[in-house]
Predict the structure.
Amino acid sequence: MREFRYERADDVDGAVALLAADPDGAFLGGGTNLVDLMKLGVATPDLLVDVRQLTSVEVTGLPDGGLRIGAAVPNADLAADRRVRERFPVLAQALLSGASGQLRNRATTGGNLLQRTRCGYFTDVTKPCNKRAPGSGCGALEGVHRNHAILGQTLDGPGACVATHPSDMAVALVALDAVVQVVGPDGERGIPIRELHRLPDDDPSRDTTLRHGELITAVDVPVLGFASRYRKARERASFAFALVSVAAALRVEDGVVADVRLALGGVAHAPWRATAAEAALRGQPATEEAFGAAADAELAAATPLRDNGFKVPLARNLVVRSLLDLVEVAR
Amino acid sequence: MDTEITLRVDGAAHPLTVDTRTTLLDALRERLRNTSPKKGCDHGQCGACTVLLDGRRVNSCLVLAVTVDDAEVTTSNGLAADGQPHRLHRSFVEHDAFQCGYCTPGQVCSAAGMLAEAQAGWPSHVTADLDAEDVDLTDAEIRERMSGNLCRCAAYANIVPAVAAVAAVEGVRR
């Protein structure tokens, strides 16, 4: 592991100033991903600014019935919060389906959003990876990629990358239209979460649209008001990343889809909001047939790799099953 | 780079000078000679290094020692107050819930943290009713909540009853 300085600031502005002055520095939250990547030699910061005690560990109510989640709220506490369980079951379920009890106790809300891909080429410094070492190539493209992306990848050129975003929580937050509050060297801003995570395009080294020195301070979740749930397929029953996951919310009136939110995990470089499926569903009868057609509309854009074509029907089935579950819940 | 910290472990304070790169696990084992937490994978995947940090279970291999000089660390050793085994220790022995024993201190700390989470009403991935007031630690619940602890001897068949017996005593299993 590279040597690094460890600093604590008195407040958020102080932490931002410390990091802004050091291009090789990083914020440290719970450390469950960053410390691991430092051990592997994938992350090599020369400065860690500990922010876990600077941002809020509270979940507070917003005037509209939504919630403001402090960036330092541990994943475990967020999943257990009664208001989250009642108003946003999709978020509680997503959190509970991720990692282990020990990791959820330490991992923070802000850090969860910023965790890096678990692509085996990214985490092995002896392998080519355009995300870790731009221009070195993508080992996964023709290598082991069973668990890689089927949508929005960059399949050739110096930006080639087929990695997925590993978070479950972020998939739920994307479905919920959350807003990520950040403080940076140029002040505060709120980022709609769909604009936080990037597709690889021509620069897979950048996971997000955050600028260096910007610190996530909170995540706002606006009121939803209808049923939601998270469904995840993985290769073992517990403590595994998603092959494919679905965050869904559905409002049905007189048998017709009045409102719907759909986001997919495990399929792309970013949590994937299924806007084509949502558009195909609004105003349609809430039937298995319509749900399947909507999933097909979304997945028409899929470009699966040699060994991960199974994710296309898996995603379709999970979307259909999740929406059928929500029809049952609403009944 | 060296930093001065004080680690509070199992009720005793230990002033230490540590390289900032030192994990809590390495500080406990290599500096304080507390070999109760074990190094299995060193990547947060096996749970052998589990300790309680201010009462909550964490993977000590992923915690930098410099970040916890204001916290109370409890290892499996520390659960044995006044030299008397904790009821989880006794239950693991009574149920033959280990073979080689390497994962056991982590299993015990994890179970202690998990039982506290259940008493606080926290749901899990397998909890059918997210809004339920109380937790009932069925075998399925115990398996899910203990999934961060691997046992390569596969003593799970006895670990689950060992934890279940204590859960029943503590009122979180019907």
